[in-house]
Specification:
Blueprint lengths: L1 E5 L8 E6 L5 E4 L4 H12 L2 E2 L2 E7 L5 E6 L3 E2 L3 H9 L2 E3 L7 E3 L9 E3 L7
The structure holds iron/sulfur cluster (SF4).
């Protein structure tokens, strides 16, 4: 399997060609540095993304608070993570960095608030 992709690890945006052989070996070309090779391998074998969303809030000066996963999570877990975030109803106040959900979607990664919302 061959995939063409742009490395998003820095603004240079190198065009990568990533080849996965039948035996599972992955080769990356087109990268200018080691980070591009790491990115290409990750994208081919287990793509990861930081998820950003909004969590519902009661008793706050706003009805929602922005949030994100503290680290990237596997792309395949994003739908479950978004469902868990949508099912939450937190109580204000929330401060930037507060844990909104621990271990979202069983990934071992927490969802944290990314803004401060005061109580009404
Ligand atoms: S391969 Fe290296 S230089 Fe090229 S975009 Fe990725 S991080 Fe930047």
């Amino acid at each position: 399997m061959t995939k063409e992709m742009i490395c998003i690890s820095c603004p240079m945006g190198c065009m990568l060609t990533v080849v996965q052989e039948a035996d599972g070996e992955v080769r990356v070309t087109g990268n200018t540095c080691k980070r591009g090779e790491t990115y290409g391998r990750q994208e081919m074998t287990c793509p990861m993304r930081v998820v950003t969303s909004l969590v519902r809030l009661e008793g706050g000066v706003r009805p929602v608070c922005s949030c994100k996963t503290r680290q990237p999570i596997p792309k395949a877990k994003i739908p479950q993570a978004l469902e868990e975030i949508a099912a939450q109803l937190k109580r204000a106040p929330l401060r930037r960095g507060d844990v909104v959900i621990a271990d979202v979607a069983g990934t071992g990664v927490d969802v944290i608030a990314t803004s401060d919302i005061a109580a009404r």
